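Thread title: Can someone regenerate the structure for this chain?

I was given the following input by a collaborator and told the matching structure tokens would be attached. They weren't. Posting the sequence so someone can regenerate them.
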Amino acid sequence: MGKQEQAEFLIEAMPYIKKYFNKVLVVKYGGNAMTDENLKSSVMRDLVVLNLLGIKVVLVHGGGPEISETIKKMGKETKFIDGLRYTDKETAEIVRMVLAGKVNKSLTDLIERHGGKAVGICGQDGHIMKCEMQDEKLGYVGKITEINTGLIDDLLNLGYVPVISTVGYDDEGNVYNVNADTAAAAIAGALNAENLILMTDICGLLEDKDDPSSLIKKVYVSDIPALVKQGIISGGMIPKIECAKEAIRRGVKKAVIIDGRVCHSILIEILSDEGSGTMFV
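Best answer:
Regenerated them for you:
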């Protein structure tokens, strides 16, 4: 990019910088964008840029592949029921160890190494994410009953990026494994976020799942049932879109599903006319 194009990009980005200045942006991060080290580095750098522009960035992350790998190394078997990991007490402890420890701290460190300020926390810290059992047959898979944003607000006001792993608590001291999309939607709603970005392994919602050029750029929440009926929203996309819908219902201005495999997809979404992925309003 030449100097002229750089200047033009900044001019194009100006209304968006103004729109998002001092507003909350929640990013849910997981999937392939998390397993590729170069992409991971690029995503964290993008978050630092947005933070330096005065946007209050909150990063919510999962870490399914890392959890499965650790469980396997420990000689335990991973059991899935209806696409959700069965979580007994021992598995819940492993989830906390991997998510709140290894994954969380590596992301926090990466943001710091790119010149940002980050603090890694989990849903148990500051009693952010109170849970109960979603379904007894799933074990300690958490259904969120309460979000307390006090600690998140404090960190944002001090200029930090809170990096949140989705481990929940209850008053009896139990540990819960919480779906990261669900947690991100609940946190975004509680923070009255301007935007929730769900990073996935596809480019957004496609009219024809085999044709990337059939991307649907904008979806009204009221249109979702018809799209499910037509089969356009199906399979693994259903829970993601339910989370986008839930975020809007909780007061988030918009939710966007973007392709985490594309370099700088967050910056393109936030700072340009074209945006990227599918926006839900």
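The chain has one domain: 21-219+235-280.
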